[in-house]
Amino acid sequence: MQTENRFFDDLAKVLNGAAGTLAGMGREAESTMRARAREWVGGLDLVSREEFDAVKAMAATARDEVEALRARLDALEGKGEPPVPNSYTVSPDAGGTTGATSDRLPGEPPVV
Fold first, then answer.
1. Is 66 a domain residue?
2. How far apart are CA 68 and CA 79, in angstroms?
3. Where is this region: Disordered (predicted)?
4. In a domain, 110, yes or no
5. How crowded is the C-beta side of 57, counted as CA atoms within 13 Å?
């Protein structure tokens, strides 16, 4: 009976040693994979959360400014202010057509 107990004792010691070795290998593999993942993510040129939040706030501010400018433009256009004249347009009192289709320069009197 003692031999059977000794056999099982030796077998238990071998299995415990193997389990310890496998656990060590697992920890080493995990640390290697973590290091490689950190290296890979570091090479992706990602932004930090603080940088992302700062740019998000800047975009929101820009959006608000655009909306304010759009409202201002709508208000200015709604007042009926005359549009800026085209540089190629001749006033009707000069007797003309557009300078793009005429031989005259804008504002030049008509040739009689």
1. yes
2. 17
3. 76-112
4. no
5. 6
Measure the CA–CA gap between 15 and 7, rounded to whole angstroms. 12
Greatest pairwise CA separation for the chain in angstroms: 137
Whether 37 is covered by a domain: the verdict is: yes
Q: Write out the two tokens for 9.
A: 């004792």
In this structure, of 6-10, 28-32, 63-67, 105-109, the range with the lowest mean pLDDT score is 105-109
Query: Whole-prediction pTM value?
Result: 0.38
Tokens of 36: 């490689």
- Pair 39, 28 in one domain: yes
- Binned at pLDDT 50, 70 and 90, residue 6 comes out as confident
Count of domains forming the chain: 2
Q: Is residue 60 part of a domain?
A: yes
- DSSP designation for 92: G
In the block, residue with structure tokens 């299995």:
15
Residue 58 is part of which domain span? 48-79
